Amino acid sequence: MPKLVIVESPAKAKTISGYLGSEYIVDSSYGHILDLPKSGLAVDTENGFTPEYEVPDKAKAHVTRLKKALKQADELLLATDEDREGEAISAHLVSVLNPKVPVKRMVFHEITKSAILEAIEHSRDIDQNMVAAQEGRRVLDRLVERDRRRRHRVEAHHEPRLVHHLEHLRQPAVRRPHPVPQVAATAPRDHAEQRAGLVVAHRPVVGDGIEFFDGAGCR
Fold first, then answer.
1. 110 within some domain
2. How large is the average pLDDT for residues 62-86?
3. Is this prediction's pTM over 0.90?
4. Could you give the percent of the chain with pLDDT greater than 70?
5. Both 126 and 190 in a single domain?
6. Is residue 169 classed as helix, strand or coil in its secondary structure?
7. Whole-number pLDDT of residue 108
8. Are both 53 and 107 inside the same structural domain?
């Protein structure tokens, strides 16, 4: 029976398949096959902050295909990327596929035939410390996201009251009178008086001493 090799991307699977031949089935997970639900906390805060994963809709077809391929294999080789995300994907593949055959973790840093064969020769176990690091980061992100949503709801609840209070402080209780200086103006009565060189003081144009301003300082 052939061995099943699972990588993350279909393009990488196609290249590696050309190196390994018919003794291997090379397929891809298309990234993560488990994730936290988009809604809800999905973290058990009462039991060690355990993440409550689910298979996303976009990954269900990939899981079905990989399970079918695994039934034809006598060994499972997990060739996801050598980082926290890749290690977590390998662990999740084991969790979801539940293989009944030996499982090995292979890593490589270049996609060449020699590098792939060497990775198969020097396979290892899944690094559970890296898996825990990735899951811890994912849980922390979800908790921070929940707290941010809570603060947003609180701010949205109190903001109208705050705005109303500020507007109340800006508007005076009554339209307060502001005294203005009185102004007197003189002008000649007509052109005849101008020609005569006479300037006669007429009825002064005098304000009543009070003008009203609204809260914005406009008359």
1. yes
2. 97
3. no
4. 69
5. no
6. helix
7. 95
8. yes
pLDDT of 65 above 60: yes
- Token pair, residue 119, equals 């990775």
Contact (CB, 8 A) for 129 and 102: no
The DSSP element (H or E) to which 77 belongs, if any, is: strand 76-78
CA distance 159 to 152: 10
CATH number of the domain to which 27 belongs: 3.40.50.140
SS3 content of the chain, % helix, strand, coil (to 5): 45, 15, 40
Instruction: Check residue 25 and report its DSSP letter.
Output: E
User: Residue 122 belongs to what domain range?
Assistant: 3-143
Ranking 104-113, 120-129, 153-162 by mean pLDDT, the lowest is 153-162
Burial 137-149 (b: 16+ CB within 10 A, else e): ebbeebeeeeeee
Q: Does residue 40 lie within any of the structural domains?
A: yes
Quickly count: other Cβ atoms within 10 Å of residue 123's Cβ: 16
Asked if residue 151 is part of any domain, the answer here is: no
**Which is it for strands 76-78 and 103-105: parallel, antiparallel or unpaired?**
parallel
